[in-house]
Amino acid sequence: MMMDLSAYRDIFIEELNDQLERMDQSLLTLEQSPSAELVQTLFRAAHTIKGSASTMDFRELSDLTHEVEFALEWVRSEKPEVTAELIDTLFRSLDAMKVLRDQYVRGEPYTDVRAVVHEIHALIRKPKPDVKLQSAVLKPITANAAQEAVLNGQQLYAVHVLLREDCMMKGPRYHILRKRLEEGGSTVLSCSTEDTSLDNQDTGEQDEHYRQFIMVIASSLSDNRINEVLSSDSDIQTLDVKPYLLHSSETAATLEPSKAENEVRVSIPEPVSPSIEDKAKTMQPTVRVSVERLDHLMNLVGELLIDQTSLADLSSSGARKDTSTLLQNIGGVSDHMGRVIKELQDGVMKTRMLPIDQLFNRFPRLVRDLSQKLGKELELVIHGGETELDRMIIEELSDPLIHLIRNSADHGIESEQVRAENGKPAKGRITLTSFHEENHVVIRYSDDGKGIDGEKIKASALAKGIINEEQAARLNTDEAVHLIFEPGFSTASTVSDVSGRGVGMDIVRSQIGRLNGIIDIDTQVGVGTTFTIRLPLTLAIIKGLLVKVSGRVMILPMYNVAEIVRIMPADIQMIQGQQSILNHGRIVPFYRLSEKLNYANSERRSKTIPIVIVRSVDKVAAYAVDEIIGNQEVVIKTLGTYLGAMNHLSGATILGSGKVALILDASYLVSH
After folding, report:
1. Would residue 69 show up in a list of annotated catalytic residues for this protein?
2. Annotated catalytic residue, options 31, 47, 66, 627
3. Which of 118, 407, 482, 516 is the catalytic position?
4. What is the pLDDT of residues 494-542, one digit of tens each?
5. CB 178 within 8 A of CB 191
6. pTM beyond cutoff 0.85
């Protein structure tokens, strides 16, 4: 009888994520400062993953991790030099493990990771001192031939052969070996040798041309069986059979071999940024909570039970007490309950919190890979990783920060030569800092690159039609810099596979806006750029401003409220066909919230108009309301899907009176 393991699935994924994160961080540190302790840490993590995967009957991950563990044991015992090849192979193995994890979570077919296993074997295998397999160039393979072989259930292999130096007839030997493969049911798709006549291949340099060669074949045989078919030939000095896989950057028309020594290009699909739907499937709805926090919550619940008992006693004995004494006793219990509930609310909110290190720790690997890919020296400095933030915000914040890092590495930080000419250190620095500020979390992202030239931004926006001449004339340099957040804006002259995928900083702004956050830019040409992101601590409980609109109570999140003012009707001006007001010398678009929500306008009873200045990301707007009620903390309740698209609303809450109040999505109102 098989045991149902589904109950342990979430626990397994949570532990797996922790161990993979530990391996990622340890590998990064090992690359900088090799030590036996780090190798031991990596070995323990791999061993833990192997055991857990085996228990969950996840054989694909268990088998791969066994090979990684074997490689780490070799490093631990043989103590080889920690080379770039070793680190890269271990990183590719780690990436393959992550791919398998994601496919396990989504219930997808598993990727063939044998290529990575062969890389590990090649790394730890000691080559013979007189053997050197040179690089070779393959003729292009047509996509149809490769696809037909795969559809027929065949595997592509690269067969690399080095013949003995004393082999007298190397050309004929090549054809004998090729014929042996074909007679065994394999099809040769391409070969590194020229298919010239046998008559010219028995002596001299032309015969030496066949000393070594690579054949790409399609076969139903296993790699071990192919080895057996060929290895009996005494003229073969070295034989290497590896899976031959398409690389993610190769076109569908041809398969190109690697030109690295003793290597055929193989690959594992790179993890891609998941869509919102994919995140919903892969993100585990669990969070670890310390025992101390749980004990604190239990104590608070105990105090509430005591207060409940006190209220019950007051209810039963109320008739025997005079009214003033009864009200006094009820008031005392109510005050105590209020304090306990406030503590309970804070405690429950903290159970949703995670240190932002959970997010920041993903980025050193990204910076390392970008450094290698772009040929730039980059370093990442992290401060304030202990700052706590709602786990939902942490997940949604990943993509905007990745986009900022890629843009800095690709476009912001100069080449080593340019930095030297400007008196900067060769290594570009990216700094991530996080800290609490009132009821917000501030994330400060900065680089010491070339900065953003506001005048160039303005000129580019003019050329693209994002602004007109009149608007450009009114913009100062600091305001012009914010044009990079406009859709379709990009200063890159060419599309880069690192950051220029046809999307720009408008994506960053919209994602920060969805989190009810604000992003600012501070830049200096030649010195660097700093992005400051302010976010609410949580999306579950907010402090809201209660306003009355056409007899209805509406709520605006306080972190989107920049200011509350009163104006006279004469202060409203028509500027370029838009009603506007002046606020601290800045022109701010003016709207009546009732009209924005398609409500009937209420009759104004006072001479002045209450105005709420609402800010979202880098945009502001002024909204006229009927009455400012005040602010209070509200619990956000999501609206049911049966209501359809309600983009102007982020949820609802229940007021103390029992009535439902709608919570407005300030970012949507300001941007539309």
Report:
1. yes
2. 47
3. 407
4. 445 454 433 468 888 888 877 878 888 899 898 999 999 988 877 667 7
5. yes
6. no
